[in-house]
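On clarity, I found the account of how folds are encoded harder to follow than it need be. Since the whole study asks how a given chain folds, the encoding of that fold should be made plain. For illustration, here is how one protein appears when written out as sequence plus structure tokens:

:::
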Amino acid sequence: MNAITEIVRPERIVLEHKTENAEALIREKPLQISLTEPDLTVIRAGGYVVLDYGAELAGGVRLLSFKGSKKVRLRLGESVSEACSEITGGTATNDHAVRDGVFCLPDFSDQSYFNSGFRFLRIDCLEGELGLKSAVAEYTHFAGEQLGSFECDRPLLNEIFTTAARTVM
């Protein structure tokens, strides 16, 4: 089977603080940074935004920054609490895959980060001000037909199977 990468846009803003126009991150836009960007999300120092991609994904995130910040912290999580947690002293770790890191995000950049399982992304602006055009997920999965199926009269079990089957793919 061949792996394919699919772009997934965030479905909703879960949390935001010291952020202007956060909803711009859920609008569909061309994934090309230019010298003029009219629809940016601005995160000021000490601010953050938490994005929900709607389903558990495998892969990373791609950020298009118009106005970069000297320092941003990016955290992935399968739950909101994991995306907002500290990696020291808690249950969230970078043990099996790096899901929490501090990076420099330059002006006019298009960068990809991480390779992990997640549904949520938290972006913290640690210094300066960050102007983001897009924060999309790069969902990597195998092209091919799913083998096997499961269905019962309990909706929660059906949902668990669907999530597990997507995770395996």
Notes: The beta strands are 3-8, 12-20, 41-67, 69-77, 100-105, 109-127, 129-142.
